[in-house]
Write a structure and sequence with these properties.
2 domains
Amino acid sequence: MEKKLPESLQKLIKKVEEAFPEDPRMVQLFINCFTNTLDTTVKRLEDGTTYIITGDIPAMWLRDSVAQIRPYLMAAGEDKEIADMLVGLVRKQFFYVNLDPYANAFNQEANGNCWEHDETDMLPWIWERKYELDSLCYPIQLAYLVWKNTGRTDHFDETFVKGVRRILEVWRTEQHHEERSPYHFVRKNCYFTDTLSRGGKGALVKSGTGLIWSGFRPSDDSCVYGYLIPSNMFAVVVLGYLAEIANQVLGDEALAAEAEAFRMEVKEAIETLAVVKNEYYGRIYAYETDGYGQFLLMDDANVPSLLSMEYLGYDGDREVMENTRRFILSEGNPYYFKGKAAGGIGSPHVPPYYIWHIGLAVQGMTESSREEKLRILQLMRDTDGGTGMMHEGFHVDDPTKFTREWFSWANAVFCELVLDYCGVRVVR
């Protein structure tokens, strides 16, 4: 490599080399994936902000850009340059949130580039305007984790405060989606998961349940039922983060009280409306519900997922969480696939029988057994399709059949699992 890695990152690579002295393939795969995001997707801009493309798509997703940099949080406490890069990303994200809190992906400049010319309120900054609840959780999560892992608070500025107030406003509106929401999204000549029904309004939900509506999932596929439970769980977590930031950094007691009350409201709604009785697995969390009593039992590898509850920090009913995990890691979950090469969670976003490296990594990070973490790491190592990188989905019988050769999020989450196995974790 021409560019010398910062010493802070070299230290982490050294830890991995020490943990896998007899597995040079694992070490090399880690180095490939660990350096990939910095080398290929991160762009520091003249205004001090940071722009991060998702990989093979030249746009920045609010969600993906946070997931892509998580491994670097572990080095940021002793590396000002990396910390500056992360603070720059926080600032860029909240700039975008203030432009349009309903958009999920943005251009580096106001150039009018977009995924598709959709029927929705587009700005030239916006690459895609699919409203995804989790896309507004990730910027708050990043801001909090930068603080906890570096001690920095300079990103909690006016843009941040304005942005979180916009987020709270949108979430309050989307608790009453039917009556109050201005959001609509229609994409013509597409598969049904790429658009919203009822003229862009989405499937009917019951308002005032306490749950927050989402048009789309973290896969960018539309929700079947509008209350996406993993994303509501994530909202509970970041509302707790916001209350802590408001109390300890901003000194804003009113904002802290508002965030905490909102957190409790959404959590109570999840525990009341999203827990269903399954004949084989007992009480489990639904993936989606409409508030009227209809629900969907499944999980998707994209995070937030039900599998990622503990990874994100959701503290739910322990028995229900354990039952849900057993369900989603079984063939009771319609998107759990098992084949000759691997078994794991896939997504309706890709063809059947393709499982995701993201799902495998999250499974590993939420395992208590060190042996099981190692088994999953070895499985990921052996399913890179001979490319030395992670992918979106790969076929359960043949890892050389995969989607997205360059997918930075998958590379990052593999690195996070390797470091987790080495005892190095993001502080939260």
